[in-house]
Specification:
The complex is a heterodimer of chains A (355) and B (530). Chain A has 355 residues and is of the alpha/beta class. Chain A is built from 13 helices and eleven strands. Chain A folds into two domains: 158 residues, Periplasmic binding protein-like II (D-Maltodextrin-Binding Protein, domain 2, 3-Layer(aba) Sandwich); 152 residues, D-Maltodextrin-Binding Protein, domain 2. Helix content of chain B is 77%, strand content 0%. Classes of the chains: A alpha/beta (355), B mainly alpha (530). Chains A and B meet through helix 1, strand 2, helix 4, strand 7 and helix 8 of A and helix 1, helix 4, helix 9, helix 10 and helix 16 of B.
Chain lengths: 355, 530
């Protein structure tokens, strides 16, 4: 009996294998390109633009990109990598061999390194004129901003009816083991929060602050997902996240239990960037994609899909966003200063947190 | 013994091992070529700190797992009692769960707001520390220790102990002087295996480790993907591989001494109900605590969604206004299930077939070099293999096939060990006898070995499938997010704050794994009892 099972298993296995191979192949080479091109849009030449992004990039935005350009006879192929780190490692590893034309979703963390490695080429999209200068972090426009949000703490109002209002109160002993943070070595919000403390307390003072904060930190997770998961499971009343995080719960779960905690009006502005790779072989198509990402149509889809703010000032944010607190100023550190000091700040911070 | 047959087997083995090493070494080589010269060399004290933590937590985890496993192994190997088979079959579950589910379940049960703390009205910090990592590793591996110890224990002739006692030795004395020495090889096997799995741990440490604790695999991941410091990553990877090979070479005998088979339900065993009241009470209490320890975290997850079963419907039919699962996961749930099963089936079949062939053709030839080589993949950083495979063959080999190749390479050591243990236990006297009587080699395999090894084979096949099921590194690393399997879907749901949906999907996953194990256990048990 059993050997028959093995033979059948092998046969079915082989069949599955071929099917799998078939699936992957189909995904690799979408045939829409030819059909769309053949359908005869006179001016638009059939072309292909390859976009790299991170895994969490909303599929609604991908669909919008693909369908918008599909109508014009351009095939947009979106490739996803595990996270921004994985995406950037891929860019460094494959350099000019990879087929990528446009990268969407690097944040300011990677700006300095990306520029040093000359991964991107300058392009000034028309829409840039309508974007506040504060957000334009690369004066040569190799990477342009498309959305932003402030990194702040969030709190669970059911577990913590009276949240701390000052940094002093945040470090008070009654909040022992109450905060879940993300690691500056492995996550963007964690890194930006560390930078915020350097900006607020100075290079001399930030370690003292962390020394006082340490007893209140329950754990430091590697990534945002784990931290936020612990928080929504009720493991800790305070978590490091974004100012817009409560919007999700308001819009999709109809609860205002989870709120943000803008302490002393301070947050670190995280800006997400997009750019055209230096070796792109379809620069015209890539420019089209960048223009579209900054168009009113795309920008107005960002808030409820990405839970970030659009960079265009003429795009309104949905009602649910009105409920969340916001720091009044844009605040971030220059990438030169970060490049120069971050490793030292991180090492000193790790020393403090390890104790 | 026919020398030509042995020679042929030897050459075949060499070929297979060479092919495997090629699939392992080529991607790593490709990766190293790309990154040569990039980055810095980590400070010696940083490497030392990571190594020290990897070693110390692995030793503590293995020690605790074995101590906890001892009484269960005793009960399983000495008594019949209701639920005995369930304990044995279900205890395989944690081992094949993706770490994200284990982490979620551990937090739900042992977390600050978890069941245990709420039950006792405490706020004890059980998971976010060194203790949490050890707890998770014990949770993962204790069933493995039970399996190894109970199989050995039921093989020990209890007349030794009885003789010692009839000669005047006390019960604890006979245990210490007679039983324990006889169990020593099994203890060493169990210790080595739990130690190795904990030493190479990744997912659990990534979440619970915080700033303070990182294993080598976590350090490799950080250097490679976060700091983009490829040379440092290579240093950590080399240290990890070096130490693994060292352990495997030193303990090759222990690793292969495991007899894989679970202690059979022997009708000659006394029933637990007939044991002395003290023994009965002690055993029942301990087994209950053990069942709660293993089952509690999963039960908490299941209880969570059982309270609101509509969440299962939401997995398939989106609730109006809510974000649909298809949008978040980028595949429908039936799609996830079918894809996972298809990949697991292909990958499991291939891994199993290779393992079986290697074990049969290598039977009776203990060779430290071979044993070390076949285990080398365990020490290789899985994320590095995934990335290397993609860099090397993407576009040439179809993506689905590449994922399967990666999974086969990294799961082979585990599956091979199971098959090999069964094959070695059977020995080759039946084969010799049948050959003498004129049966062809294939006929011997079909008519003699297969029926006798059915249980081992079924077990190994189930493991191979489940390990592929649980894999996330290869699927994401090679698949560029285009292939969504169970762990990928669960991870995406959690990332999108859809915690209850993630738990519901985890419960379906756990159900499928449990069904697989119970099915295999039920079919093989009944037939072999006949």
């Amino acid at each position: 009996m059993f050997h028959r099972f093995i033979v059948t298993a092998l046969a079915v296995g082989a069949a599955c294998f071929l099917t799998l191979a078939g699936c992957a192949n189909r995904n690799d080479s979408p045939s829409d390109a030819e059909s769309a091109g053949a359908s005869g849009n006179a001016q638009a030449e059939p072309s292909e633009v390859v976009v790299y992004t991170y895994d969490a990039f909303p599929s609604a935005l991908e669909d919008l990109l693909v369908s918008h350009f599909g109508d014009q006879g351009t095939t947009v192929i979106v490739e996803r990598f595990e996270d921004t780190g994985g995406l950037f490692a891929e860019l460094l590893l494959t350099r000019d061999e990879s087929p990528v034309d446009v990268v969407i979703g690097l944040d300011t963390t990677y700006l300095g390194h990306a520029i040093r490695e000359e991964l991107f080429q300058p392009y000034t999209p028309e829409a840039l004129a309508g974007i506040p200068e504060d957000f334009v972090v690369d004066p040569l426009h190799r990477l342009v901003p498309f959305d932003y949000g402030n990194v702040v703490l969030n709190y669970d109002s059911e577990l913590l009816p009276e949240p701390p209002a000052t940094w002093e109160e945040l470090t008070a002993p009654d909040l022992a083991n109450s905060i879940v943070l993300t690691n500056p070595a492995t996550s963007s919000p964690g890194r930006n929060f560390l930078l915020l403390t350097v900006m607020l307390f100075g290079e001399e003072g930030y370690l003292d602050f962390w020394e006082r904060l340490r007893p209140n930190v329950l754990t430091v997770t590697a990534g945002w997902s784990e931290a936020y998961g612990l928080y929504t499971q009720g493991e800790a009343p305070i978590v490091l996240s974004y100012e817009t995080s409560p919007v999700y719960h308001i819009a999709f779960e109809e609860t205002d239990r989870y709120r943000n905690l803008v302490i002393e009006d301070a947050g670190y502005t995280q800006i997400e960037l997009a750019g055209i790779t230096a070796h792109s072989d379809n620069v015209a198509g890539a420019r089209g994609v960048i223009e579209f990402v900054l168009s009113e149509q795309f920008q107005s889809e960002i808030p409820l899909n990405q839970f970030m703010y659009p960079v265009r000032v003429d795009v309104e944010t949905p009602e649910a966003f009105a409920a969340v607190d916001r720091p009044s100023t844009v605040r971030y550190m220059s990438s030169e200063r970060i490049e120069e000091n971050f490793d030292e700040w991180l090492a000193a911070w790790e020393e403090v947190m390890r104790q | 013994m026919s020398s030509t047959a042995a020679g042929k087997g030897g050459i075949a083995t060499i070929v297979v091992v060479a092919v495997l090493l090629f699939f392992l070494a080529a991607p790593i080589g490709a990766l190293l070529m790309r990154v040569a010269g990039d980055g810095t060399v980590p400070a010696a004290h940083a490497v030392y700190r990571v190594l020290r933590f990897s070693l110390s937590q692995a030793i503590v985890s293995a020690g605790i797992a074995i101590v906890l496993a001892f009484p269960v192994a005793y009960a399983v190997s000495h008594y019949r009692f209701p639920g005995r088979r369930l304990i044995v079959a279900a205890s395989m579950l944690p081992f094949v769960l993706p770490s994200i589910i284990v982490v979620v379940a551990m937090v739900a049960f042992f977390g600050r707001n978890g069941t245990v703390n709420r039950l006792f009205g405490m706020e004890a910090n059980l998971v976010y520390s060194f203790a949490g990592i050890v707890l998770a590793h014990v949770y993962y591996n204790v069933s493995l220790a039970v399996r190894v110890l109970s199989a050995a224990w039921s093989g020990i002739d209890r007349r030794y102990g009885e003789t010692a006692r009839s000669l005047g030795d006390s019960r604890p004395g006979s245990f210490l002087r007679v039983t324990l020495p006889l169990l020593r090889p099994a203890v060493s096997t169990a210790f080595t295996l739990v130690f190795l799995y904990s030493f190479l741990s990744f997912g659990v440490v990534l979440v619970f480790g915080g700033v303070r604790y990182a294993t080598l695999e976590v350090a490799i991941y950080r250097e490679f993907f976060i700091d983009l410091d490829f040379r440092s990553a290579a240093v950590f990877a080399a240290v990890q591989l070096g130490f693994t090979v060292l352990f495997v070479a030193a303990f090759a005998r222990s690793i292969h001494a495991d007899r894989a088979g679970v202690a059979r339900s022997d009708p000659r065993l006394p029933r637990l109900a007939d044991a002395s009241p003290a023994t009965r009470l002690g055993m029942v209490l301990y087994l209950l605590i053990f069942a709660v320890f293993l089952g509690g975290p999963l039960a908490t997850l299941i209880g969570r969604v059982a309270a609101d079963p509509t969440v299962f419907r939401d997995l398939f039919v989106p609730r109006p206004g809510a974000r649909s699962v298809e949008k978040i996961v980028r595949s429908t749930v039936p799609g996830v299930i079918l894809r996972s099963v298809a990949i697991a089936f292909v990958s499991g079949t291939a891994t199993f077939a290779l393992s079986a062939w290697l074990a049969l053709s290598h039977r009776g030839k203990g060779n430290r070099l071979f044993e070390t080589t076949i285990f080398a993949p365990m020490g290789v950083s899985v994320v590095s293999v995934a990335l290397g495979l993609r860099l090397l063959w993407e576009g040439i080999v179809p993506m689905g096939a590449l994922v399967v190749v990666g999974q086969v390479v990294v799961t082979l050591p585990i599956v091979f060990r199971i098959v090999r243990a069964g094959v070695e236990e059977l020995g080759d006297r039946f084969v010799q006898a049948a050959r003498v009587l004129g049966a062809s080699r294939f006929a011997v395999f079909r008519d003699v070995e297969l029926p006798l090894l059915r249980r081992t084979f079924a077990n190994a096949f189930a493991y191979a499938m489940a390990l592929s099921f649980a894999d996330i590194t290869m699927v994401l690393g090679v698949g560029r997010g285009r292939i969504a399997t169970f762990p990928v879907a669960i991870y995406r749901l959690i990332g999108f704050r859809s915690f209850d949906l993630a738990v519901a999907l985890s419960v379906i996953y756990i159900g499928m794994c449990a069904a697989l194990f119970l099915l295999i256990d039920a079919t093989t048990e009944r037939r072999s009892d006949r």
